[in-house]
Specification:
Protein name (chain B): Thiazole synthase
Largest sheet of chain B: 5 strands, parallel
Pathway (chain B): Cofactor biosynthesis; thiamine diphosphate biosynthesis
Distance between the termini of chain B: 51 Å
Helix content of chain B: 25-40%
Strand order of the largest sheet of chain A: 1-2-3-4-5-6-7-8
Oligomer: heterodimer
Pfam families (chain B): ThiG (PF05690)
Number of helices of chain A: 15
Order of helices and strands of chain B: EEEHEHEHEHEHEHEHEHH
EC number (chain B): 2.8.1.10
Order of helices and strands of chain A: HHHHHEHEHEHEHHHEHEHEHEHE
Function (chain B): Catalyzes the rearrangement of 1-deoxy-D-xylulose 5-phosphate (DXP) to produce the thiazole phosphate moiety of thiamine. Sulfur is provided by the thiocarboxylate moiety of the carrier protein ThiS. In vitro, sulfur can be provided by H(2)S.
Structural class of chain B: alpha/beta
């Protein structure tokens, strides 16, 4: 069966990177003035040569986002179900070798967390787990979805990659979207950061969006974890992945996230730094490449950064996120996957968004006609 | 009075509007009231029909406003029929704006599923308003299965590009026995006026009002443009002359 791997294998990381670094002012201008932008234009827009055009890119990104998404921003909340994990990931607080108390929420505890999030107004939820197939496998996730299905308009998961029939089962239970970040598209570096556990299989992860597309999922979220490798090359491969998926699974919606490495217990220093200016450039470049793709921003980023980025292309954000299972109501003091940066309450974030002329959208889906 | 009749309802305004993309519900209400629109579409997926205090629905409560639920988000006929029934039950209206766009990127309507769903919904007693491509044959097919109007697009939704499908809209308007409402792509009052001048029965505008710097003023501008275009259509436009008339006519020899 054909998959993104067929395309991916034709590219060489170093060639891609040097190509991006060689883009010049003329390439950037060409990209800025094109009415439909190509992946080559995207390379120019994320290149160092585009830096002097950042304000122009931001203006364009602002206009395109307004046109498609209007004066609105969607809100979602992540909910960690478990921190059990059999993977070793050098950058993650839940990594198997980290000596932290492990917890997997029971049904009662899930409902306690849900009650808290509902009281804050959330209708779109993101369920997160580590990878522990025996205790937090497909049946656990399926049970969690069925348990909360009537309470949320929209359920997304960010869990271990699964097989197509598993996704079909979860969709049947009310699953709307799956986030699966490649972390890095640099195959050798990927191996270094994921030395043990199922996650060490680069190709299986790379082909996950294909399995999701075949299963008929409504939305797939892509992204790379910035800090592991060069952000420009990783973003090129993310864009390439996006383009391939849009053409192949054309009934599915896509979103892109932009996680930057955050401090956590057992921390890893970023190998390649991504500055605030780089991140703004990248967000605008994605919007210029694709007017319709959803761009998401978590509480990993600071208050100031988030306040300014919501008008530059971002279409959905979270607030007061907890990255520990039970963090909202059950056991607020337990250890987090990573430290969040913007710690403001949901109410404060909503007030901030309104002051920026943005209407908060809590509900943009209904699964009861499926 | 020059009213528009669709099914059992008469409309004095030929400007239909939508509820998306406004920066607040309050501004949405004020803009829609300024537009004097009497038929306003709302996406089922955006409202909580079980909540009596739903933020959008609450702001649309007005004697002049008729709600037109739409099925945005569904991917095929089966889901559309289900959504329509849900809307009928919850919002107590048998009117439905049928939107089936399986492609979430350009939101282009699926003609095959739309025709299938329209046929079934008409049988179930719905007043069906289908959002479709400017495809003249599809319009006739929809008319045949009993839709009460057709809603061909002027340009990709949200694009504000105007009547890119002009040649096909002209054919549709020429052939149709049901009202033709130009939906999607209308980006400025002049586009709306133009659609009315060529004989569209109404237009539906959302993005151009909601995303404007001053939505209330823009709603008023659209109200006036639609009215002007309709008046012009009724008054019959003077013919457009491509060339000046020749001073020595070619057929004058016939009179000699």
């Amino acid at each position: 069966m054909s998959s993104f791997k067929d395309i991916f294998d034709k590219f060489d990381w170093n060639d891609v990177l040097s190509d991006i670094l060689q883009k010049n002012e003329q390439d950037v201008q060409q990209a800025l003035y094109a009415s439909k932008r190509t992946i080559e234009d995207f390379k120019a827009l994320i290149s160092p040569a585009a830096k002097p055009y950042l304000e122009q890119m931001a203006q364009l990104s602002y206009q395109l986002t307004k046109k498609r998404f209007g004066n609105t921003i969607q809100m979602y909340a992540p909910m960690y179900l478990s921190n059990e994990c059999q993977n070793i990931c050098t950058y993650c607080g839940f990594s198997m070798t980290n000596k932290i108390p492990r917890r997997t929420l029971t049904d009662e505890e899930i409902l306690e967390e849900v009650a808290y999030l509902k009281s804050k107004g959330y209708d779109h939820i993101l369920l997160v787990t580590g990878e522990a197939n025996r205790t937090v496998g497909v049946s656990y996730i399926n049970n969690a979805i069925q348990l909360i299905q009537s309470k949320f308009a929209n359920i997304t998961i960010e869990v271990q990659p699964l097989d197509q029939p598993d996704y079909e089962l979860l969709i049947e239970s009310g699953l709307y979207a799956v986030l699966v970040y490649q972390e890095t598209y640099h195959k050798e570096e990927y191996k270094k950061h994921h030395p043990k556990g199922r996650k060490s299989n680069f190709d299986y992860r790379l082909e996950t969006p294909d399995r999701l597309g075949r299963a008929g999922i409504h939305k797939i979220g892509l992204g790379a974890l910035f800090g592991l490798e060069d952000w420009r090359a990783d973003s090129f491969f993310t864009a390439l992945h996006l383009r391939y998926l849009q053409k192949t699974y054309w009934k599915t919606k896509y979103s892109i996230s932009f996680p930057r490495l955050r401090p956590h217990s057992g921390g890893l220093e970023p190998k390649v730094e991504m500055t605030d200016s780089d991140l703004v450039q990248l967000i605008c470049a994605f919007r210029l490449l694709d007017e319709d793709v959803e761009l998401s921003m978590s509480t990993r980023e600071s208050e100031v950064f988030r306040e300014n980025i919501v008008n530059l292309g971002i279409t959905s954000i979270s607030a007061e996120s907890k990255t520990n299972p039970g963090g909202y109501a059950v056991e607020p003091q337990s250890l987090e996957q990573f430290e969040i940066s913007d710690e403001r309450s949901t109410e404060e974030v909503v007030t901030m968004l309104r002051s920026k002329g943005l209407e908060v959208v809590w509900k943009d889906w209904a699964h009861n006609w499926q | 009075m020059d009213t528009l009749k669709i099914a059992d309802k008469e409309f004095s305004s030929r400007l239909f509007t939508g509820t998306g993309k406004f920066s607040s519900s309050d501004l949405m209400r004020k803009s829609l009231l300024a537009s004097e629109s009497e038929l306003i579409t709302v996406a089922l997926k955006r409202v909580d029909v079980e909540d009596d205090n739903d933020n959008i629905l609450r702001h649309l409560d007005h004697p002049r406003i008729n709600l037109l639920p739409n099925t945005s988000g569904v991917r095929d006929a089966k889901e559309a029929v289900f959504a329509a029934q849900l809307a009928r039950e919850a919002l107590e209206t048998n009117w439905i704006k049928l939107e089936i766009h399986p492609d979430p990127k350009y939101l282009l309507p699926d003609p095959i599923e739309t025709l299938k769903a329209a046929e079934e919904l008409v049988k179930l007693g719905f007043v069906v308003m289908p959002y479709i491509h400017a495809d003249p044959v599809l319009c006739k097919r929809l008319e045949e299965v009993g839709t009460q109007c057709v809603m061909p697009l002027g340009a990709p939704i949200g694009s504000n590009k105007g009547l890119k499908t002009f040649d096909f809209l002209e054919i549709i308007i020429d052939q149709s026995n049901v009202p033709v409402i130009v939906d999607a792509g209308i980006g400025s009052p002049s586009h709306a006026a133009f659609a009315m001048e060529i004989g569209a029965d109404a237009v539906l505008v959302n993005t151009a009002i909601a995303v404007s710097q001053e939505p209330i003023a823009m709603a008023e501008a659209f109200r006036m443009a639609v009215k002007a275009g309709r008046l012009a259509y009724n008054a019959k436009l003077a013919p457009v002359k491509k060339h000046a008339e020749a001073s020595s006519p070619l057929t004058s020899f016939l009179n000699e």
